[in-house]
UniProtKB/TrEMBL annotation:
A molecular function GO annotation: precorrin-2 dehydrogenase activity
NCBIfam families per record: cobA_cysG_Cterm (TIGR01469), cysG_Nterm (TIGR01470), PRK06136.1 (NF004790)
Lineage: Bacteria, Bacillati, Actinomycetota, Actinomycetes, Geodermatophilales
Tetrapyrrole methylase domain residues: 177-387
Name of the featured protein: Uroporphyrinogen-III C-methyltransferase
Hydrolase found in the keyword field: no
InterPro entries: 4pyrrol_Mease (IPR000878), 4pyrrol_Methylase_sf (IPR035996), 4pyrrole_Mease_sub1 (IPR014777), 4pyrrole_Mease_sub2 (IPR014776), CobA/CysG_C (IPR006366), NAD(P)-bd_dom_sf (IPR036291), Siro_Cobalamin_biosynth (IPR050161), Sirohaem_synth (IPR012409)
């Protein structure tokens, strides 16, 4: 049911926030509109009772774990007894009118999905950023409210609307650390929470593989610390990074540790978490899109495919097979039939390819190498295990690059953009 604008002269809205924890809310209807309303009510942890002979599969999924109570019949008078709030969301105007009339008699605020003019309450366009809740009323025009809400959320996400009020952590110091996975490089692939954490930070400790353009959007008051670790080149010691995170947090700063990919996929993120916990610093982890899956996907290569592979393994290639410090069982990897994704394995690629062939993979197994994945400089080169070393040398490919071994490489097609 499309919501229609209402003449705002019919009543000025008084904006409030309902605290519905444990309070009974009755939703009449089981379609898509009811689904949207129920989702928000469950987020507010209301005691939701759904009255409808049929419901959508998504609503039914809430029933089994006991998230809501489903009364499987049509609405009847008296169903609003004990309710604090009601929603009339059926496709029958007479039923909605009856629900609204009962609500009016019992002094229960009621939102009618089919007739805003007849509702005693207008549901705002709601958005959430962490514990910040944004509710927009559009002067009787729901589309206007949605448009403004989305603009505010986008501004909070990209930092153009700054939410920089410090929030002391109860029982702890004012400072904190957020470990942010920035994704494979394209700034558009960072999560909403990750972008928000960077926008709110007083200090950003960033790797060179993190989305660098995000740093350019930060205000000059934000301190940016370069914690890059260049392959076979200059790098900041992990112990120094850990100490910086703790030092700034204990000084009352909000610190964002911006890393490429996901912090826990060969990112040494757990070491940073442990350092913060040991120092009593509150720390949050924001997962990121790992390049092990995201970069092949962007190049049109799935790491799994029905009927072709039931497994994939991600391996760090920073040490070659046979190295005394290597923890990889290359013999076991070679015996696998599925997909092998190698990170940090450009320099060691010839030795790894040889080990895979030695332990069972066919020399002609397809390989795709994706360099600078997700960036404007991305290159995809296809070869085989037998030809991998020569191909990398001929193409002049250096880090960062991800390479994929397996039959899924033959499926690779770039989707039209």
């Amino acid at each position: 049911m499309p919501e229609t604008p209402v003449d705002p002269r019919t009543g000025v809205v008084y904006p409030i926030g309902l605290r519905l924890l444990g309070r009974r809310v009755v939703v009449v209807g089981g379609g898509q509109v009811a689904h949207r309303r129920v989702a928000g009510l469950l987020e507010a942890r209301a005691d939701v009772v759904l009255v409808s002979p049929e419901v959508t599969p998504a609503l039914e999924a809430f029933v089994a774990p006991g998230s809501l109570t489903w009364i499987r019949r049509r609405y009847s008078s008296g169903d609003l007894e004990g309710a604090w709030y009601a929603v009339a969301a059926t496709d029958d105007r007479e039923v909605n009118a009856a629900v609204a009339a009962e609500a009016e008699r019992n002094r229960i605020f009621c939102a009618r999905a089919d007739d805003r003019a007849a509702s005693s309450v207008w549901t705002p366009a709601v958005g959430r950023q962490g514990d910040l809740v944004i509710g927009i009323h559009g002067g009787g025009d729901p589309q206007r409210a949605v448009s403004v809400r989305d603009a505010v959320l986008a501004g909070l996400a990209d930092g153009s609307i700054a939410d920089r009020v410090a929030r002391p952590v109860p029982g702890g110091p004012a400072g904190s650390v957020v470990l942010v996975g920035g994704g494979p490089g394209d700034p558009g692939l960072i999560t909403v929470r990750g972008r928000q954490a960077v926008a709110q930070a007083d200090v950003v400790v960033a790797d060179h593989l993190a989305p660098q353009s995000l740093l350019a959007s930060l205000p000059p008051t934000v301190e940016v610390i370069d914690a890059s670790k260049l392959p076979r080149g200059r790098s900041m010691a992990q112990e120094e990074i850990n100490a910086l995170l703790v030092e700034h947090a204990l000084a009352g700063k909000r610190v964002a540790r911006l890393k490429g990919g996901d912090p826990f996929v060969f990112g040494r993120g757990m070491e940073e978490v442990e350092a913060c916990v040991a120092a009593g610093v509150p720390v949050e982890v924001v997962p990121g899109v790992t390049s092990a899956i995201g970069v092949p996907a962007l190049a049109g290569i799935p790491v799994t495919h029905r009927g072709l592979t039931h497994e994939f393994v991600v391996v760090s290639g920073h040490l070659p097979p046979g190295h005394p410090a290597s923890l990889v069982d290359w013999a076991a990897i070679g015996r696998l039939r599925g997909t092998v994704v190698v990170l940090m394995g450009v320099d060691t690629a010839p030795q790894i390819a040889a080990a895979l062939v030695e332990h069972g993979r066919a020399p002609g197994t397809p390989v795709a190498v994706i360099a600078d994945g997700s960036t404007p400089d991305e290159r995809v080169v296809r070869t085989t295990l037998a030809g991998l070393g020569a191909t990398l040398a001929a193409e002049g490919i250096g880090p960062p690059a991800v390479w994929v071994v397996g039959e899924v490489v033959s499926l690779g097609v770039r989707a039209p953009s």
